[in-house]
């Protein structure tokens, strides 16, 4: 599971709520050791928006003893623009004292409202201890729950209808409507993609198709990811990341040197996914953003 951490009021608070002085939160060492042992930890704070945590670590040095700095360096930075929810990925918990209302609305819309844990160590100095109990219970619950195994396999002719519907549904989720006449490449994926030499894969949860993606072979050295889509009810489970990683591995196996992507510059979820998978922004215009990853 992923654990996203704000800083102010989560790791930095007050030893006494009546005191004006800010300090490292009580139980911070125990909390950090626990979190790093059980979760993939990420910074989700206005101190880190560009994928670089150097400034945050410099800021924290004023409050954190030297022996804890190595723990903080193990926490990965995130990349996001306007809303923190742009960075949330996979199976997660998010610790924050005051998300924006639009962020809370997004969580409710995705049925993920229970994944935000309110933490405020300024008002409740022992709050990290309480949160550790909640997270430990979540870990135990997950251990007892059978986990579906996601498999990724090559596209087959019988996948045509389901794959087309899944991709069109994803476009509809983002744009409000998907016009099939604007996506003729989906009419016969086997002929227009697979037989043309491109790589199309299907992600399955048991017998259910939950995602798909394509690696277009532009040249012997350059590939392009297109038609990446995950079923709405299976998003935030790491399936998109698994599809991207799988296709990057395919590109490496073909001795490619670079994979590129073009997507809408307002598609925050998709952009966040690609940035987390190691892609870098090469530029953008009034409609699109251009990303690439060197292999």
Description of the structure:
The protein has 295 residues and is α/β, with parallel strands linked by helices. It has 2 domains: 2-144, HAD superfamily/HAD-like (Rossmann fold); 150-294, Gcn5-related N-acetyltransferase (GNAT) (Aminopeptidase). It is built from 9 helices and 13 strands. The protein has helices at 28-38, 54-60, 69-73, 101-109, 127-144, 160-175, 189-194, 239-253, 268-276, and strands at 2-5, 12-13, 23-24, 40-43, 92-96, 116-118, 150-154, 199-205, 208-217, 222-230, 258-264, 280-284, 288-294. A 7-stranded mixed sheet has the order 7-8-9-10-11-13-12, sandwiched between helices. Helix 1 (28-38) runs parallel beside helix 5. The longest helix has 18 residues, at 127-144. The protein is elongated, with a radius of gyration of 21 Å.
Fraction of residues in helices? 25-40%
- Biggest sheet strand order reads 7-8-9-10-11-13-12
Calculate Rg over CA atoms.
21 Å
What is the overall silhouette? elongated
CATH third-tier fold name of the largest domain: Aminopeptidase
CATH level-1 class of the largest domain? Alpha Beta
Tally of individual domains: 2
Strand count: 13
The name of the CATH superfamily of the largest domain reads Gcn5-related N-acetyltransferase (GNAT)
User: What is the typical, i.e. mean, pLDDT?
Assistant: 92
Structural class: alpha/beta
